[in-house]
Amino acid sequence: xxxxxxxxxxxxxxxxxxxxxxxQLLAWFGADVIKVERAGEGDATRGQLRDIPDxxxxxxxxxxxxxxxxxxxxxxxxxxxxxxxxxxxxxVLVENFAPGALDRMGVTWEHIQKLNPRMIVxxxxxxxxxxxxxxxxxENVAQCAGGSASTTGFDDGPPMVTGAQIGDSGTxxxxxxxxxxxxYQRNTTGRGQKVLAPMQDAVLNxxxxxxxxxxxxxxxxxxxxxxxxxxxxxxxAVPRAGNASGxxxxxxxxxxxxxxxxxxxxxxxxxQAAVWKAICKVIGQEDWITEPAYATPQARLLHxxxxxxxxxxWTMTKTKFEAMDILNEFDIPCxxxxxxKEIAEDPSLRETGTIVEIxxxxxxxxxxxxxxxxxxxxxxxxxxxxxxGEHTEEVLTQLGYxxxxxxxxxxxxxx
Length: 415
Ligand code: COA
Hints:
Strand order of the largest sheet: 3-2-1-4-5-6
Number of helices: 18
Largest sheet: 6 strands, parallel
Shape: elongated
Distance between the termini: 35 Å
Number of strands: 11
Bound molecules: coenzyme A
């Protein structure tokens, strides 16, 4: 089977998480991704959070599947020449260096344009143009600056970051979409272009509903689906909403059987208006079907706390999976709080290739998250991440370098 991005060659100048998630996706869609790393060191994540001494970390392996790795000192003039050759022969350069690093290397947009006007240059930066544009940024900084931290957590607690890597992997996804769109546009213009995905902007895009709420709050002074209503107070800015649903159907996380000892014995329960009658029947509170204080969605907004407390009396008598089975029979939207252990063992996720077991020559078998995007005509085969410089000779040979050239570059520590 062919792949969607067959024939696209990526000069992958990314490191850590945001950039690598982007190029890994492109590799899964069939692009030839050549990861350029510093000789001897490589991507810093190879050595970070190691669970086995001297073996590429899971952090690295899980973000760099299906790529080829070459080592190259791009600050050495001969290394820079190799880099120029790569620029001439690749379609896209992806990078997420600190602001200005690429320019300091001499790889300016003008330089790239001169060598290859068709090249797309895609960058992740922490911030777009503005007062913070020169700042280095990691995941949680982006979550804080993009509106996620101020709106996550409970109202009586501090701002909170989320476990979902929306700043890094979230931005990588945005960048990948920009690259694919730029490749498509190049078909008609024949030109490359710059693609920028700032992490703050990507997080804000994912927090879009909170900017919606900011404007609702300013207009009406209140938001009835928030836990601050009706007893608490609203300030000037969107408050933290705990586990309240971000949409128009109130929801909350409720305890299930075993919660005293199992930190994940909980279920997310949504009191969708369409199934209110069924909810009342399941929990044995049929009088709430007609009782004016509970009968309409509008009336219920005044009583969400007692409503969820009553439903929780029922969920606490069931395990989260028993509750799921019963509630799903009535089309009541709900979701078990799954631990990473449960997800890792989930047979459906294994079958669909979203959880994949990979064999690595140095670390042996490990689990990874495969391609979450499924295409009917471009299947993803996840292959292991490359060892540092594993493909240096192979790639340089493809670029036209002779064995003698390669030996010379090696002896001069350029590769
Ligand atoms: N050969 C020679 N030099 C190389 C090289 C190579 N193959 N690859 C990288 N370098 C150099 C760069 O030119 C740069 O040198 P300079 O500072 O002298 O110009 C240097 O290595 C390090 O780059 P930098 O990006 O500053 O790394 P860092 O470890 O100090 O910072 C980040 C890491 C993530 C904070 C920073 O890269 C950043 O802010 N990136 C943008 C936002 C981002 O993606 N953040 C999320 C990361 S998950």
